[in-house]
Specification:
With about 550 residues, the protein is an alpha/beta fold. The protein contains 19 helices and 17 strands.
């Protein structure tokens, strides 16, 4: 045989363009073509489900490497049509030249181009047409998918974990699908949220990494028996579908970057999680984000990391060790970094300061009488807040209705506006949509507060809660759980040579007193009015 050929076959992920041109058809056609022309086939490369807009195709790259390295010697690269080779005119021209350098010419079985300059020109024209046709097809497919999403249908991608697709109706010869919950997976989603927010009952709230380890160590698996990954768990914890709304068109899959908020399309799906739980998780994730709280603080097992501060300069206190780690101290970080000229600083034994803080909380703050002094008036005032909460909910809902009208007006303006206005209108739309998200979060909290049974705050109640909290803080509880409660009850521990001042959230204490059962620390709000310990809970630290 005179000539040797490599056969390259490909089908795209765009099923509309390729359903009638299968891989076996392309290979069979190539074999007949070569037999008729006395051409020897020396290799076959097949990319199933790969776009020809770029060279990110495994088999294509193997073919390029084989030709360049000399591992496969061929005179021809045979394809069914030039669109199977490339749908980008620049890429097509580049790789045709690369193969030509190694003595191989790209040939289409269905598009004869001839040789020389005329053949090259014909190939370029065909490649440009393929590129145009590909762009037009992509445009029509995208328009169809967007309209499908606007009607509430699922577009065929893998459904989120916890869901499955069901046929909602049949239009012509096509099944229109929607999402339904997959019971076993949905229960696992609930477990993931519970572990992140509450822990497993033996520890405090877990981070994403610990949740992932917990699931894998106990034999829970993702789809197809795969282990959970940190990325998978994070994706589950942040997916809005679980509270009833999936957003289509959030990301440009080709450019791998997010789309503007105004281009998102909401699709109503069955709910898996309650709003308050979902938004509590989002708040917790926001607080733990490395841009707000350094990972060393988030993951630290040290009781007062991120809370203890130097009373002289306000800098955080850092862990220092002595005698090869035998002794551990809290020390002013500013003094440690810049010396005594920056701050006279203070250094205190870590076990001793931890003990002082826990003792002060348990013996001076968490005593029934002291609890009543700190939050008694707040509890009495809030016990009659039902009417007030309902009024606040009505105001929030009215604000949401106003925002919804503004969003619709902006969408209408974008559709008819000129190019000069689009950027300003889009920015305003994004701002209104973010405001709507915040109103949704606040509404969820208010609804939970309104619907949550409120325990009667009697003297007995103060005693029960006091005992439970002191047990959690000073008993044999898990250190992670103790640290979680410390971080929610205390917002600041200011340390000097003469005194220690501790302060925290009144709402954190009130919430524990009025809840029907003790709340996990991550469900306790910590962004409202603070209490600051008086002299009776402000001991002089001994032997600093």
């Amino acid at each position: 045989m005179g000539q040797k050929a490599i056969v390259y076959a490909r089908v795209s992920t765009t099923r509309q363009a390729d359903h009638d041109l299968s891989i076996p058809d392309q290979i069979a056609h190539a074999e007949r073509y070569c037999t008729e022309r006395d051409i020897e086939i020396v290799a076959r490369y097949v990319d199933a489900g790969a776009s020809a807009r770029d060279d990110n195709r495994p088999e294509f790259q193997q073919m390029v490497t084989a030709v360049k390295s000399g591992a496969v010697t061929a005179n021809l690269i045979i394809v069914h049509s030039f669109s199977r080779f490339f749908r980008d005119s620049f890429g097509s021209a580049f790789y045709c030249r690369e193969f030509a350098k190694h003595g191989a010419q790209v040939v289409s079985m269905t598009q004869e181009t001839g040789d020389g300059a005329q053949g090259e020109l014909t190939r370029q024209i065909l490649s440009s047409f393929d590129e145009y046709q590909s762009a037009e097809t992509a445009k029509h497919v995208k328009r169809s998918m967007l309209e499908n999403a606007r009607r509430g249908y699922w577009n065929g991608s893998l459904p989120p974990f916890g869901y499955k697709t069901i046929v909602a109706e049949r239009v012509g010869n096509k099944d229109k699908k929607k999402l339904a919950t997959e019971p076993k997976e949905a229960e696992l989603v609930k477990l993931i949220f519970r572990l992140y927010l509450h822990g497993d009952g033996k520890s405090g709230p877990m981070g994403v990494k610990n949740v992932t380890s917990y699931l894998n160590e106990r034999g829970f698996t993702h789809r197809k028996g795969r282990l959970f990954s940190i990325q998978t768990v994070h994706g589950i914890l942040t997916r809005s579908a679980y509270i009833g709304t999936h957003y289509f068109n959030r990301r440009d899959s080709r450019k791998q970057r997010p789309r503007p908020r105004e281009e998102w399309i909401p699709i109503e799906v069955p709910r898996v999680m309650e709003d308050d739980i979902f938004h509590a998780v989002q708040e917790q994730m926001k607080k733990r984000h490395c841009s707000i709280t350094h990972p060393r603080i988030t993951n630290s097992q040290i009781l007062l990391t991120g809370i203890a501060r130097c009373d002289h300069c306000g800098a955080q206190m850092r862990i220092q060790t002595g005698k090869g780690g035998q002794y551990r101290y809290y020390a002013c970080s500013k003094k440690a970094d810049s010396g005594r000229a920056a701050c006279p600083g203070v250094r205190v034994s870590m076990p001793k300061l931890d003990e002082i803080i826990i003792d002060a909380l348990c013996d001076r703050i968490m005593q029934p009488k002291r609890l009543k002094e700190i939050v008694g008036a707040l509890v009495a005032r809030n016990s009659g807040r039902r009417d007030g909460l309902q009024k606040e909910l009505r105001e929030l809902r009215n604000q949401r209705r106003d925002i919804a009208k503004q969003i619709q007006n902006l969408v209408d303006a974008i559709e008819v506006g000129d190019a000069a206005q689009l950027r300003a209108l889009s920015a305003r739309l994004t701002k209104r949509q973010n405001q709507d998200d915040e109103l949704i979060r606040l509404t969820a909290y208010k609804e939970r507060e309104l619907n949550q049974p409120i325990a009667e705050v009697t003297s007995k109640r103060f005693e029960v809660v006091s005992k439970a909290l002191r047990t959690a803080l000073k008993g044999d509880s898990n250190p992670q759980l103790r640290r979680a409660y410390i971080r929610h009850f205390l917002s600041d521990v200011s340390v000097s040579e003469q005194s220690i001042r501790i302060s925290g959230s009144k709402a954190a204490l009130e919430q524990q007193l009025t809840a029907e059962e003790a709340l996990p620390p991550s469900m306790v709000p910590s962004t409202v009015q603070e209490w600051r310990a008086g002299e009776d809970s402000n001991p002089r630290p001994p032997d600093l």
